[in-house]
Structure to design on (460 residues):
């Protein structure tokens, strides 16, 4: 399908000349004699490019440009005028015009600008489609993220889900360990059976045994009735033991026996009974270190550590931040029964450059807060918390730990450069010219890196 161009000019001769010229080049052309008529056409049809005179009765070409940009990226806009001034050219470009042409103009010059503008619009449309496709690919059950690290984890989940092996999921708080456990359960033969989750660190030791194994009536003060434990509740399904590193030594012994013998004894009971529940465990602690410090049983560690999944912190999977942020925006906006606003390039750059010590949970809270503070259709840098605005990137020396088995220096350098590019763009509201100046690199280099790292930015 031919690219669509809308020509807007109050002079019939200029409209007719542009129509003939552009149709000869293979474009589909519509014409409007005023900005008002153009807006009406835009409400009915999408265009790839708008070529508009600036001075017209009623709304001007600048007014039209503002209206078009207020609706989002949309069509590219090229403005034409016989009354060129530096101020009007700067204003047009600041408002998002693709280019500014002065009458009289060379036909070849105009056609060159038109082809470039149409090509840019086509690339933007392709990028939107690719992002939508990637967004669909970035969902794995309830888990969101399409980064290489997460794709490796998805592949591992697919391999281990059909087995009955015990799995240990490790990662910092807020990285989504329970979502991984649910994904394993849902893809297993037990997927239609119960998934039972318990936070071992949130229940006192005196109650945890009763919660896991149940108790009989009269077993202790307050046991007025027999209660089924979570192992029994999860029979045929999956039991997820979150924060297992917080479990007391006595409970570790009783859990080890349950895992080894597949039998449990309720508190106050005199006999054991069989249970069939696959156990998945998670922790934000280094269990191997706890074993060395005699704070976690070695035999239990090896029993639960048959298969390990190590979840990366959000700062190690920055490619997923835009997808996660958009997901939380849609989720929170839907909960508030309002349209989801867009994140400006500066706001997104700030999200991408922050360290996220609270990981995904912290990102969700920040997005929810920004949505509450943003009254309009855009979330600006000013809507983000102060601790993000004042965040300083760590000095490179702080990231110089070298693993025993080595690492890729080119990848590390690339990561640091990407982080500084993101941060500079965030500080300059996504404007590449200013961000390049802040980093002491050329605009051409900045544009190259923006494209390479798939960042949101604008030229000026």
């Amino acid at each position: 399908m031919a690219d669509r161009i809308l020509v807007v000019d109050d002079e019939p001769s200029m409209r007719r000349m542009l129509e003939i010229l552009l149709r000869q080049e293979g474009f589909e052309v519509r014409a409007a004699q005023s900005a008002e008529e153009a807006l009406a056409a835009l409400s009915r049809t999408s265009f790839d490019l708008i070529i508009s005179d600036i001075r017209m009765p009623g709304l001007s070409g600048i007014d039209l440009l503002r209206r078009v940009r207020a609706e989002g990226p949309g069509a590219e806009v090229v403005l034409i005028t016989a009354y060129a001034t530096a101020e009007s050219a700067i204003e047009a470009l600041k408002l998002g015009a693709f280019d500014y042409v002065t009458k009289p103009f060379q036909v070849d010059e105009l056609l060159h600008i038109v082809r470039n503008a149409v090509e840019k619009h086509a690339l933007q449309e392709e990028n939107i489609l690719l992002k939508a496709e990637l967004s669909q690919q970035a969902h794995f059950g309830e888990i969101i993220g399409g980064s290489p690290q997460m794709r490796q984890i998805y592949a591992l989940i697919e391999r281990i889900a059909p087995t009955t092996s015990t799995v240990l999921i490790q990662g910092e708080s807020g990285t989504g360990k329970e979502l991984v456990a649910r994904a394993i359960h849902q893809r297993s033969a037990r997927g239609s059976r119960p998934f039972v989750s318990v936070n071992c660190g949130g229940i006192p030791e005196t109650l945890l045994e009763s919660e896991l194994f149940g108790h009989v009536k009269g077993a202790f003060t307050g046991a007025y009735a027999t209660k089924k434990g979570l192992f029994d509740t999860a029979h045929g399904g999956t039991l997820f033991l979150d924060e297992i590193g917080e479990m007391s030594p006595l409970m570790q012994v009783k859990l080890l026996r349950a895992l080894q013998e597949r039998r449990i004894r309720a508190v106050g009971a005199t006999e054991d009974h069989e249970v069939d529940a696959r156990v998945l465990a998670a922790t934000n602690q280094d269990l191997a270190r706890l074993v060395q410090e005699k704070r976690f049983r070695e035999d239990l560690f090896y029993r639960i550590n048959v298969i390990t999944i190590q979840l990366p912190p959000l700062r190690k999977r920055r490619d997923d931040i835009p997808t996660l942020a958009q997901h939380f925006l849609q989720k929170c906006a839907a909960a508030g029964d309002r349209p989801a606003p867009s994140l400006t390039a500066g706001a997104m750059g700030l999200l991408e450059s922050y360290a996220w010590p609270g990981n995904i949970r912290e990102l969700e809270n920040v997005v929810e807060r920004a949505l509450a503070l943003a009254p309009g259709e855009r979330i600006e840098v000013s809507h983000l918390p102060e601790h993000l605005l004042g965040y300083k990137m760590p000095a490179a020396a702080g990231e110089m730990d070298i693993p025993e088995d080595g690492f890729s220096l080119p990848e590390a350098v690339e990561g640091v450069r990407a982080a500084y590019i993101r941060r500079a763009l965030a500080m300059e509201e996504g404007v590449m010219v200013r961000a390049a100046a802040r980093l002491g690199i050329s605009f051409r280099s900045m544009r190259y890196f923006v494209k390479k790292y798939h960042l949101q930015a604008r030229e000026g």
